[in-house]
Design brief:
Elements (H helix, E strand, L loop, with lengths): L7 E4 L16 H9 L1 E2 L4 E5 L6 H11 L25 E4 L8 E5 L3 H10 L14 H12 L5 E5 L7 H16 L3 E6 L2 H4 L5 E6 L2 E5 L5 H11 L2 H4 L4
Parallel strand pairs: 3-7, 3-8, 5-6, 6-7
Antiparallel strand pairs: 1-2, 1-4, 8-9
């Protein structure tokens, strides 16, 4: 049975969308989303690409389309610093009948504000003092506390907070979460997270969005080459 929280994001012909020469429609991946929509497969979708390719913008658009706080948290979270996100762009969310409605967004660049909000508005079970934990500890603590049931989980560059071993731990947790029926979208620069078993990998770039295999990614090739011969890269940096 199809229980995807999001089957597809599709453009609404009756909604106002940004002009082609206005951000974020100037981002190729977003322009493709506005033209074609995007099907989100069951399980995990991993977005990879260079800085400014549009990975985070896609995550923000998906979050807005399902009603999440654009700076992180659940639908009910009420915190904001500076509104800079693109919004839902008038996209329509197609859901599977009876699919779980729970959703949560974690964005690395807005975690400080989310931690402050949660500490000031603790759940009935209480919250740890996130600001007294390391960046990685706080992230994993929050993720494991919220990611306990089927639903939609959006993670924007979680690897920024994590060491190699912590990234492996997150990879294992995401694998288990998907096995329990969750739908996950991860934007990452990490070849470790991009190797999430069974994930649909989308490579984001000047071409827009395209399906790719992990072993064909530019990300994977670059890390493999650097780790094999770092001096071949370093001599070109001067």
């Amino acid at each position: 049975m199809d229980r995807r929280p999001i089957r597809r994001l599709r453009p609404d012909p009756g909604a106002s969308a940004p002009a082609p020469d206005v951000w974020p429609a100037t981002v190729p991946a977003v322009a493709q989303l506005l033209r074609e929509g995007l099907e989100l497969r069951a399980g995990a979708t991993v977005l990879v690409g260079e800085n400014a390719s549009g990975k985070s913008t896609l995550v923000e658009v998906i979050a807005a389309a399902v009603g999440l706080n654009p700076e992180g948290g659940s639908v009910g979270a009420r915190h904001s610093t500076r509104a800079s996100e693109p919004g839902s762009l008038g996209l329509v969310v197609e859901r599977a009948p009876g699919a779980p409605r729970w959703a949560y967004l974690l964005r690395d660049e807005t975690l400080h504000g989310l931690y402050s909000y949660l500490e000031s508005n603790p759940s009935p079970a209480g919250e740890p003092t996130f600001h007294e934990l390391s960046h990685g500890e706080a992230f994993l603590n929050l993720f494991h506390d919220r990611a306990t049931r089927p639903g939609l989980y959006l993670l924007d560059e979680p690897d920024a907070a994590l060491s190699f071993t912590a990234t492996l731990a997150l990879l294992a947790s995401l694998t288990d979460l998907v096995a329990r029926g969750a739908q996950v979208v991860v934007a990452t620069h990490s070849p470790v997270l991009a190797a999430l078993p069974g994930a649909h990998v989308l490579e984001i770039g000047p071409w827009g969005m395209r399906t790719a295999r992990w072993d064909e990614l530019e990300l994977t090739a670059n890390w493999r080459q650097f780790l094999g011969a770092p001096e071949s890269f370093l001599r070109h940096l001067h």
